[in-house]
Amino acid sequence: MILRKCREATSADLVQLFRLDGTDLNLQLTWPPDSELAKRLSRTRLPVAISAYGQALASSEFLLVSDVRLHRGLYSGDIAFHSELIAPFRIKDELIGAISLISKAPRHFTNDNGAFAKTLADQAVVAIFHADLV
User: Fold this and answer.
1) Order of all β-strands in the sheet with 94-103
2) CA–CA distances in Å: residue 54 to residues 7, 22, 92
3) How far apart are CA 85 and CA 75, in angstroms?
4) Using an 8 Å Cβ cutoff, are 125 and 73 in contact?
């Protein structure tokens, strides 16, 4: 539900939830799950240290990438989208993962979208924490 809300509010083409696993982020959920873009990016494992995700996770703030094609050092492989917004989340002081919003259009996301995604990421943390306890 959190990913669907995020997509609806920002008109993102795809919203993903990643969990941190050592030095990689593992894709956990995608909305919408059956989209062509979701299939293309499925089973994604991202090295944190040398990616846009690494920058967002290190700062604990959302990161807006207006056009990924202008930031080739942060992305690798066949890029199927233009803009991305990454909102990391933590439980207490421990980094847990990130929500990623993707758009096929350049400069799609705004700072207001980033603040909204960060709020939803904070809500996702509560759900993940409770799921881990069960």
Assistant:
1) 45-47, 24-31, 14-21, 94-103, 83-91, 63-65
2) 23, 12, 19
3) 13
4) no
3-state secondary structure of 102: strand
Residue 52, SS3 per DSSP: helix
pLDDT tier at 133, thresholds 50, 70, 90: very low
* Residue 1 DSSP SS3: coil
Max Cα separation, the chain? 43
In this predicted structure, the answer to whether residue 66 has a pLDDT above a threshold of 80 is yes
pLDDT of residue 72 exceeding 80, the answer is no
Complete domains list, the chain, with CATH: 2-133 (3.30.450.40)
Mean pLDDT for 54-66 is 82
Q: Can you tell me the distance from the alpha carbon of 35 to that of 37, in angstroms, rounded to the nearest whole number?
A: 5
